[in-house]
Specification:
InterPro entries: LRR_dom_sf (IPR032675). This is F-box domain-containing protein. It comes from Gigaspora rosea. By secondary structure, the protein is of the alpha/beta class. The chain has 20 helices and 15 strands. Strands 1-2-3-4-5-6-7-8-9-10-11-12-13-14-15 form a 15-stranded parallel beta sheet. Helix 2 packs antiparallel against helix 3. It is globular and about 80 Å long. It starts with 7 loop residues before the first helix and ends with a helix.
Length: 525
Amino acid sequence: MSMSYLPVDCVTIILEYLRYEPGCLFSCLIINRSWCQVTVPILWSDPFSIFGEKFGRNIIRSYLICLNNEKRLDLIENGINIPLSEKPLFGYHKYLRILDYELLSHLVRSWMIGNERFKYFDITLYEEGSVSKHQFCLSMLCKLFMENCSIKSFRLSKSWRHLDIPDVSMFSSGNPGLTKTRKLEICFTEDESKMPNTTKLLNLLPSLCTELNSLSINFPTVTDSRDMREFYELFKAQRNLKKLKLSWSRQVFNNFLKVVNSRINNTLTSLQLQRLKLDNLSLDALEFCSNLKTFKIMNLCQDLTLTPQCLSSSSIYFFKNFYFWSNCNMSAQATAAIIKKAGRSLQRLHLDFITNETVDAILHYCPNLSSLKIDNKSDNDNNNLIKLLSGMNGMKLKKLDLVFNSVIPPRLGQILPPSLDSLTLLNVNPIFYKSLEEFLNGIQAQLSCLTISFLGKCLPEILKVIRDYVKSNNTLRTLNFTSHPLRYICEGELNDILVMKQELHETVDVLFDDSKDYPNLDAAT
């Protein structure tokens, strides 16, 4: 069938895959009228990301000429110059689906000042009266979007030196407004007392956004004395919330637990906590989240200690994935308790430390674990890792990721579970190639995929070690090198890599994550 006779629905589906490939989409604009009419809504669904910020001033201008003449006259009367006679080719504003308020505010300022390299958030560049002009123009655009768009993703971010929203009605009076929003991100780095209109909007969100699938809340400046009641109402209003990410505010998390305890919301599939103080906490409410599949405690969460009642309770969790990464001051007892309560449900586990408690919890309570990632921070971690892997022979572990901060323990290869299919070694120091050689030679598992990232460049000695292992392994099909191993190599070392790839390419795919910068690597196969 000729492409010119493809049904419009098929063309739309195809072009959706090119959403963030503007060069391809621009070519599609000029094929014919039908393709143009399909392409324009895709390009303008998220124009600031698709076109890039460097076109921000042009995007703002295109939106402003979508205003009717009455609204344009209002802008002119407020000292904002805009042509009255110019008409847009399309109603670009109707296609917007992803709105970042802070980015929009920044680009409106940039357009008004007429300098695309305008310093982000620097309101000192304004002339007298420019702030009110900016707020008026911003209000006009937001009302235009709320009255004509079906916004699917909305980000309300307020950073320091950023202005309060001009008027709550710019978000609440339009239809459909935010009623169709499925993804909401709220990020405050400013004292709320300086932003009364934004605070009013937060109180309105539970009535505006009731069909969220994804919600992210980040409040670094809020103290624990503030009860954050509006978020309790926001959680309670949701009928189909799938993903929740909470950062900084313990009170917001407590309000979430209250809603869960009341068994109002049972649709959550993913919960992520970041930068939260988690001392003396009870997570028993998670027992009621029977659809929860992924639980993440990440990025500088502190002092995880569970209440004695939570530690001793018989509650169980249903999540399959538990990520515990980049944290500090964490109780091994509390971490082990979470692993135990997930137990047979747990299939993927990421830990940035390993202790006797966590080893015992994994071996005795998690028979269905199929993917494990562990960061070895010390020799003591190595001892616990050896204890863990030695006890996993009867389990069905398929994927293992190990992060090393020192020499790889040579005997570790001998005790890898025989069920292992994929092995990833991160932060391997090429200087210690002898220990890597002993490790690889000891592996009995029938690996099909081996991934290695180096601390530094690929040395010829370590390439030989890896090449010899691959040649002796009849099951390996993929060899990945990550973390830009080619960046610092010289011409002679690149030739060594080319030789290795040519020797292995008939049986093994050798992949480099920065190979696009070295066309000869692809030519080698």
